[in-house]
Write a structure and sequence with these properties.
Layout: H1 3-9, H2 15-23, H3 26-33, H4 53-73, H5 75-82, H6 103-111, H7 114-126, E1 131-134, E2 150-154, E3 159-163, E4 171-175, E5 182-191, E6 194-204, E7 216-220, E8 232-237, E9 240-243, E10 253-254, E11 261-262, H8 270-304, E12 306-309, E13 319-321, H9 326-361, H10 371-398, H11 411-423, H12 428-448, H13 476-499, H14 506-512, H15 514-540, H16 545-565, H17 581-598, H18 602-607, H19 613-616, H20 627-635, H21 652-655, H22 661-669
Parallel strand pairs: 1-5, 2-5
Antiparallel strand pairs: 2-3, 3-9, 4-8, 5-6, 7-8, 10-11, 12-13
Helix pairs in contact: 4-5, 8-9, 8-10, 8-11, 9-10, 9-15, 9-16, 9-17, 10-11, 10-12, 10-15, 12-13, 12-15, 13-15, 13-16, 15-16, 16-17
The structure holds flavin-adenine dinucleotide.
Flavin-adenine dinucleotide binds next to β1, β4, α11 and α12.
Length: 679
Amino acid sequence: MDVLPYERSRASFSVEKLEKIITKSNAKVIEQFAPLFDEPVFHNQEEDILLSYEDHFKKSIERVSRSFEIIRENPEFMIAHMKQKIQMETFFDHNGIFLHFSMFLNYLKSQANKEQLRYWNAEARQGNFIGAYAQTELGHGSNVRGLETLATLDLKNKEYEIHSPTLTSLKWWPTGMYACTHAMVFAQLIINGENKGLHGFMVQLRQPDGSLMPGVELGEIGPKLNFSSNNIGYCRFTNVRIPMNRLFSKYSKVIETTGEYIAAPRSLSKFRYISMMLARTSIVRIAYKMCAKACTIAIRYSAVRLQGFKNKSSGSSEEHYVLDYKMQQYRLFKGLAYSYCLLWNARYIHSYIKGIQNRLEDGDNSAADDLPELHATLSGLKATATVTAHDNIEEARKCCGGQGFLMSSGIAKLSPDFAEWVTVEGEQVILSLQCARFLLKAVKQVQSKSSTLTETVRYIGETQSDKNKNINVITPSGILSLLKMRARNLAWRLTEQYDQQKGGDKDEALNQCAVIAVKASTAHVQQFMIENNFKAINSFFTDDLAIHTIMMKLLMLHGLQLISENAGDFVGIGSDVFLTSKVLSTVESRINRLMDEIRPDAVSLVDSFGFVDTELKSTIGKYDGNVYEAIVNEASKNPLNNKNNNGKMIGWETYSKVLNLEFLKKTAKEQTQRAVSKM
Ligand SMILES: Cc1cc2nc3c(=O)[nH]c(=O)nc-3n(C[C@H](O)[C@H](O)[C@H](O)COP(=O)(O)OP(=O)(O)OC[C@H]3O[C@@H](n4cnc5c(N)ncnc54)[C@H](O)[C@@H]3O)c2cc1C
């Protein structure tokens, strides 16, 4: 019996319908444009790992360059790409260069004044020059104010001098920087000896012949956790002179004639809040995609992998599919449920923010009231979502046993590839502490009864009442109530610990209770995500009971796993604590039942993510489930597997010098091959 077709026949819902909602016909779009990339340079990408660091880099430059031409030759593809209907990484690993089209362009659009936009934007959009985002330095990352690169105004010559005064001031980590021509460089602006703070400057790094501009030392920082990343740069500036109009001046500016500095308005504009929030939401979407890919590979593989005899005593040779083992289900369905939670959150929050944006554009300023709180919650969300997605990706990899260690599995690469998202664009602890500050503020507001709380933190002001005793822990709303209770408990415990700190420095006080602060932020985000997930299912699937039901099951599984794994967080809630051992065993047995209920839909739930084989790049997660053929086929491409000369080992000439060849001759004589009978 073909295993995966059987698994697919058991679906309780329409995969086609769910897949359409999730991918918006992604497979069809890929099918439409894939022929554009059917050229030798894009072939055999799975063999990249066998290339040297330098050859791999050259290959990625060849692919990127050809992709630029493909985009320019095919306007339809260009539009689909610009509208984000199709991503370049579907066809090849762009090795950081496309950061130019995201972070660099976004920054340009949000920080350049009209004149600067006119000069740079069209060329940048065409990819006629390539820019990196150079903020982090060797000595400072999270502490942005501690960055040391200097931009000193020379009013007489109408120039800034960009200079790296110390070893620690070298720009270090900018993605795509080795293969870029320009960079958005962040430096301390010095005018008449006075530091005006950190500002962004456009600095050219390479000349038209590919060599470096005067005063620029640029390099690549070396092998990283993910082997395919070999285009992350470092840069030292030695008295580099740039014209005054290279300071991005949409908000703050320096008057060219007098050198007078005009600071940006102090408060973050509503629109900047929104663009930062949308950027965070897009990271949640990346987390979804990577987590869902890992689950697709691991669940398909677990559905076909046999291991362990069913009935040992009877001597039967029938084996269990590993997906039928309870622990395998616990680990993989956890990632599956989390993938869906990330997806619905990204969708729900995106449309919510867009709604606020529309209202603001229509002149309804009250729409911005919730933005600071929502922004803080989304900081915590970026941290929690990326950390948890990474945990789930790695867990899914481990669930594939030895094959999960093999690069051709496609899953081994996902974990190191995703790892960077936990750190970039806001390190996990820094963002969680940012979110915790808002929780502290919310508790203070409740304590002082000064103002009403905004929606995302309203639960913090709710009191623990008798009605809590009647919460039904196995319903979605009961689970949400419990998670809110846990988050509230942690927010108040954080405040208690924070208030006990002596001395006036708020950051140091928060540092002293950072452990509970990060916990409180995580709990706040988790209840927020469950609530959004709940709202999203109820608004997206009212007309499809079957999809609604399975989505609710995943939501409940995720919520109940959170409760059971964090039961200690309920300690201290008071005399009406009802997370007793009895309630906990209800939670645990419901988790067990949910795993049984989700099991028949498992393969269909990952099919619904809609990844095509060319995206998964996996021997063990292919749609047809023919894993063993694929693994062996991939191994046969290994250059060590010398097919000529009767498989003579590479390097034998050296190796043989330390072996006793006479002994090998003797033992070889003792072993023969039985003649293979002709059929
Ligand atoms: C793959 C990759 C790509 C990147 N791409 C870019 C890019 O394109 N452009 C760019 O400018 N940068 C880039 N970065 C840099 C990235 O933004 C920084 O690594 C990140 O901001 C963290 O800074 P850091 O490395 O200095 O870590 P640190 O700030 O030194 O953190 C080290 C540890 O100290 C802790 N810590 C630090 N400060 C505090 C605090 N105040 N309170 C509590 N704990 C604290 C952190 O939690 C962490 O555990 C990239 C990094 C990676 C890994």
